[in-house]
Design a protein that fits this description.
Number of helices: 22
Strand order of the largest sheet: 11-12-10-13-14-9-15
Strand content: 15-25%
Number of domains: 5
Bound molecules: adenosine-5'-diphosphate, zinc ion
CATH superfamily of the largest domain: P-loop containing nucleotide triphosphate hydrolases
Radius of gyration: 31 Å
CATH architecture of the largest domain: 3-Layer(aba) Sandwich
CATH topology of the largest domain: Rossmann fold
Number of strands: 30
Helix content: 25-40%
Largest sheet: 7 strands, parallel
Length: 765
C-alpha cells in the first residue's frame, strides 16, 4: 500500500514519512464521553484528506447504518481487532462546523505541547454538567381571530371557564410565559387541551445562566485621539484587504493608560458590524468589575465573561450562548480562547506578556499561540497589547512576523512618575539597617502627612533561597549557566539548569564579606517594620495568606480604594491593573528578588514588574514618585525600568537570549520527569537522555542539557528531574517529544514514574 501523505498544515514536519492507516472517530461529542473513539480504516484514496477535526460518514453498528463522526486522531495501528475494522464511508463535504475546528485545535495543542488527545479535548471543550437545564416555556396563541371567535362561542356554550380565561389572557399580547399562566390559576391540563385543539402552541427555550448583571448604565462616549485612530485604521486595513481571511498578528505597544482598551473596543465594534464575533483575553487578576463594565456599557447584552469563579455549569452555558449567537464578545482569561464562536473575527490579548497565558498543567499550551492557530484556521485577526511586550512577541514584531503599532502618549493628562533607584549597599554602609532607604523613609513620612496613599511592593515569588551578598550585592552564580545558585538545605548551593553543586561558602566569593545569606523578606516582615516605624499609618496587606479567602482580594482592594488604609503592602498582585488615583508613592522594597531566580526570563519579569509598579504612581493629577530599592542599581533591567525605556531593556535582553540560546532566539523544551522512587527516576532520566541523544547525533544543532534535579527537586515526596533540549526550530523539538512519547508509551518504568513536556517554559520546573 502506498503511504497516505498526511496534510497537517502547521505541524507537517514532525510526522513526515509515517503511515497512518487508521483513524479514531468520535460519534457523539456530548462532552462526558470524549474518550469514546472508534477505530476505522482510512481508505487509500482518502489518504491526505483525513486528519483531526474532519467530519466523516461511517458505517455503524450491525446494520451498518451510516452516521457522522469527527476524526480525533490518525494512527499507524488500531487498538480494535484489525479484521473487524470497517472503512470510513466518505468525507462529509460541507461547511466546517465549530466542533470540527475545536477538535483540530485540540490536536494542535496535543501535538505542540504534549498531552493525550483526551486531555487536549477536555481542555478545549468544556464539560457539560449533568445538572438539569432551566427551560423557559411560553404559551403562544397561533390561531386567527375568526377561528378563535368560533371556539369562544363553543366554550361559552359548554361553560369551559378555564379555557375562556386563558384565551382572554392571551388576546392582548398573543403570548405569555407559563409562569404567568400558573399565576392566573390556569392548570397545565387547560393549556394542553387548547394545544390539542390547535389554538396555542407551547414553545420551550433553554435558559442560560448569565454571570453578567448590570443595571443603570451610563452611555459610552469616547472619541479616539489621532494616534488611536491611526492604529485602528491600520489594523482595519489589514482586515479589509484580507477579506475574511487571517489578517495577521498585531502588537500594540503602549504604556498603561495610553488608550489600548479603547482601540480594542473600536475594532470589536467594526468586527461585530461585519457579522463576526470577538474574544477578549485579560489576565484574571486584571479582569475587574470596572473592565467588564466598560465593555458592557458600550456593547450591552452581547458581552459575557468567563472566569475561575464560575461554576462548570455557568461556564458551559456561556460557551453555549456563544455558540448560538446570544453572545458576541467573550471576555476572560486564558481559556476564553476556546469560546466556540462560529464566526470568529477577532482575538484580543491584553497584557499579552503575562505568564498566566501559559497553562501550568498538561497540556501546557500558550493561549497566544492557540489564538494564532485559531485565527489562521478560522480567518480571524489577532491583536496583542502591552505596556511591556513579552520579549517573544517584540522579537517577532521586529522580525516582521507580527505588525508593530506604537502608542506614545497617555490618553488622559497625567505626568509620568519620577523614579529613584536607591542602592541598598550604600544604605548599609551608612549604617541604615532598616528595610527602608533614607529617601523612601522621607517620602513615606511626607505622604502620611499629606494624607496621600502609598503602595509598598515586594516580589516574593521566585526569590526563595537565592543567595547573595549584602555587602557587594553579588548573587552567587553557576559557572556554567547564567543563573543564580539556590540554597538547598543549609549546606549546598545548586544550579537548576545543569546540576552544578557546591557547599555553601562561609564568605562572599567576590568580596570576602561574611554577610551572605538567602533572601527571606516577606510581606509580613515589611508590615511589621512599617508598623514599628510609622505607628500612625493604617496598613493593609495583600498576599497569598490574606487573599486566600473568597473575595479576600477584592475586599482588600476596595478597602484601599475607599481610603481605609494609608499603605497597601503586597506581592506582585498589587501592581497589576488597578487604578488608585490617590496613590502618589510606590516603593519597591527589594527589586533584586526576582533578578537571580534561576529562570532565563527573570530579567524580563523584573523589568515588567518594576515598570508596572512605576505605572501605579500618580495616575491622578499629582505627580507620582517611585522608589526602587536594590542591591544591583546598575542592572540593566532595573535601569531600563527606571528610565521607563522598553527599547533599552529589549536590546540588552535579546542579546543575552541570543548568546545563551534561549527563546525566542532558540526554542526550548523541558522534559520533566517525576517519580516517588528516586532510583526509578534516575534510570528513567538516563534512558530518556539516551533517546534524545540519538536525535542529537543526527541533528548537530540540537543541544541537550541535563538530566538535572528540578528547581524544586522534591514536592510532596515526588522526586523531579528535568532535561532541557534546545533547537532553533520548534518542529525539531516536537519531533523529539513525539519520539520520547512513542518510546516511553509501553515502558514498564512509567507505571511508577511520569514524563511531561513544557515548551518554551515560562518559569523553572
Ligand atoms: P490602556 O488600555 O492602554 O491602559 P485605556 O484604554 O484604559 O488605556 O485608557 C486609559 C484611560 O483613558 C481610560 O479611562 C480611558 O477611558 C481614557 N481614554 C482613552 N482614550 C481616550 C480618548 N481618546 N479620549 C478620552 N479618554 C480616553
Ligand atoms: Zn560580596
Ligand atoms: Zn549551571
Amino acid at each position: 500500500m502506498t503511504k497516505p501523505k498526511i496534510h497537517y498544515g502547521f505541524w507537517a514536519k514532525s510526522i513526515e514519512g509515517l503511515i497512518f492507516m487508521y483513524a479514531k472517530i468520535i460519534v457523539d461529542i456530548s462532552h462526558e464521553k470524549l474518550d469514546k473513539g472508534f477505530d476505522y480504516r482510512i481508505p487509500e484514496h482518502m489518504g491526505d484528506k483525513i486528519y483531526p477535526g474532519v467530519l466523516v460518514s461511517i458505517p455503524f453498528g450491525k446494520g451498518n447504518r451510516l452516521i457522522q463522526g469527527y476524526v480525533l486522531e490518525v494512527n499507524e495501528t488500531a487498538e480494535y481487532d484489525e479484521d473487524k475494522i470497517k472503512d470510513i464511508a466518505e468525507i462529509v463535504e460541507k461547511s466546517v462546523p465549530i466542533e470540527s475546528r475545536l477538535i483540530s485545535l485540540a490536536w494542535f495543542i496535543k501535538e505542540n505541547y504534549g498531552s493525550t488527545m483526551n486531555q487536549a479535548l477536555k481542555t478545549v471543550i468544556p464539560i457539560k454538567e449533568s445538572k438539569k437545564d432551566i427551560i423557559k416555556k411560553t404559551v403562544i396563541l397561533t390561531t386567527s381571530d375568526e377561528k378563535l371567535a368560533e371556539y369562544v362561542e363553543k366554550y361559552e356554550r359548554k361553560h369551559a371557564t378555564a379555557r375562556l380565561k386563558l384565551i382572554e389572557a392571551l388576546k392582548e399580547n398573543r403570548q405569555m410565559s407559563s409562569e404567568l399562566v400558573v399565576k392566573l390559576g390556569i392548570s397545565s391540563a387547560t393549556v394542553k387541551a387548547l394545544e390539542q385543539e390547535g389554538l396555542v402552541t407551547v414553545s420551550e427555550e433553554k435558559v442560560y445562566r448569565n454571570p453578567v448583571k448590570f443595571s443603570d448604565l451610563k452611555p459610552y462616549g469616547i472619541v479616539l485621539n489621532k494616534e488611536q485612530r491611526n492604529i485602528c485604521e491600520s489594523i482595519r486595513n489589514y482586515i479589509d484587504n484580507n477579506r475574511g481571511r487571517y489578517a495577521g498578528v498585531h502588537l500594540i505597544h503602549g504604556i498603561t493608560g495610553s488608550g489600548k482598551t479603547e482601540i480594542y473596543m473600536e475594532l470589536i465594534e467594526k468586527i461585530i458590524a461585519d457579522g463576526k464575533e470577538a474574544i477578549v483575553m485579560i489576565p484574571e487578576i486584571a479582569l475587574t468589575y470596572q473592565t467588564v463594565m466598560r465593555f458592557y456599557r458600550k456593547f450591552g447584552n452581547v458581552v459575557s465573561i468567563i472566569n475561575s469563579k464560575l461554576s462548570a455549569g455557568e461556564r458551559y452555558d456561556q460557551f453555549e450562548r456563544a455558540k448560538n449567537g446570544d453572545v458576541k464578545i467573550m471576555i476572560g482569561p486564558r481559556s476564553a480562547v476556546f469560546t466556540p464562536f462560529r464566526n470568529l473575527g477577532l482575538i484580543i490579548i491584553d497584557e499579552e506578556h503575562e505568564s498566566s497565558y501559559k497553562s501550568e498543567t498538561v497540556p501546557r499550551y500558550h493561549a497566544r499561540e492557540a489564538a494564532i492557530f485559531r485565527a489562521k484556521a478560522e480567518g480571524a485577526t489577532v491583536v496583542l497589547g502591552s505596556a511591556t511586550p513579552s520579549v517573544d512577541s517584540y522579537y517577532k514584531a521586529l522580525k516582521g512576523e507580527y505588525v508593530l503599532h506604537e502608542l506614545h502618549k497617555r490618553a488622559k493628562e497625567a505626568v509620568p512618575a519620577e523614579v529613584f533607584v536607591e542602592d541598598l549597599r550604600e544604605e548599609l554602609k551608612e549604617g541604615n539597617r532598616t528595610m527602608f532607604s533614607r529617601r523612601l523613609d522621607e517620602f513615606i513620612k511626607d505622604r502620611l502627612e499629606k494624607k496621600q496613599q502609598i503602595m509598598l511592593f515586594i516580589n516574593r515569588r521566585g526569590y526563595a533561597g537565592f543567595v547573595s551578598c549584602r555587602s557587594c550585592g553579588k548573587a552567587i552564580k553557576c559557572p556554567h549557566c547564567d543563573v543564580g545558585l539556590t540554597l538547598h538545605g543549609n549546606k549546598h548551593l545548586r544550579c537548576h539548569y545543569c546540576g552544578y553543586d557546591i557547599p555553601m561558602p562561609q564568605t562572599c566569593p567576590e568580596c570576602g564579606s561574611k554577610y551572605i545569606a538567602a533572601f527571606g523578606t516577606g510581606t509580613q516582615k515589611v508590615e511589621e517594620a512599617v508598623n514599628k516605624m510609622y505607628p500612625q499609618a493604617r496598613t493593609l496587606r495583600m498576599d497569598l495568606d490574606t487573599t486566600s479567602k473568597k473575595d479576600g482580594y477584592e475586599n482588600i482592594l476596595s478597602a484601599f480604594a475607599n481610603g481605609e488604609a494609608d499603605i497597601l503592602i503586597g506581592t506582585q498582585m498589587i501592581v497589576k491593573g488597578h487604578d488608585f488615583p490617590n496613590v502618589t508613592l510606590v516603593g519597591v522594597i527589594a527589586a533584586d528578588l526576582s533578578l537571580y531566580a534561576s529562570d532565563y526570563r527573570s530579567s524580563e519579569k523584573t523589568f515588567q514588574l518594576l515598570t508596572q509598579a512605576a505605572g501605579r504612581a500618580g495616575r491622578g493629577r499629582e505627580r507620582g514618585q517611585v522608589v526602587i530599592q536594590t542591591y544591583a542599581p546598575d542592572n540593566f533591567s532595573i535601569q531600563a525600568s527606571a528610565n521607563q525605556d522598553y527599547t533599552e531593556f529589549y536590546n540588552q535582553e535579546i542579546m543575552y537570549r541570543s548568546l545563551s540560546e534561549y527563546p525566542p532566539v532558540c526554542s526550548m523544551m523541558a522534559i520533566m520527569m517525576t517519580s516517588k522512587d528516586e532510583k526509578i527516576l534516575a534510570v528513567l532520566a538516563e534512558q530518556i537522555k539516551g533517546m534524545v541523544d540519538t536525535v542529537a547525533a543526527k541533528h548537530e544543532k540540537l543541544r541537550v542539557i541535563g538530566p538535572a534535579d528540578a528547581g524544586i527537586a522534591r514536592i510532596n515526596d515526588v522526586y523531579r528531574k528535568v532535561i532541557y533540549v534546545k533547537h532553533t526550530e520548534y518542529e525539531v523539538l516536537v519531533a523529539v517529544k513525539n519520539l520520547v512519547e512513542e518510546k516511553t508509551e509501553d515502558m514498564e518504568l512509567l507505571k511508577r514514574a511520569s514524563v511531561q513536556f513544557d515548551f518554551n517554559p515560562m518559569s523553572g520546573f
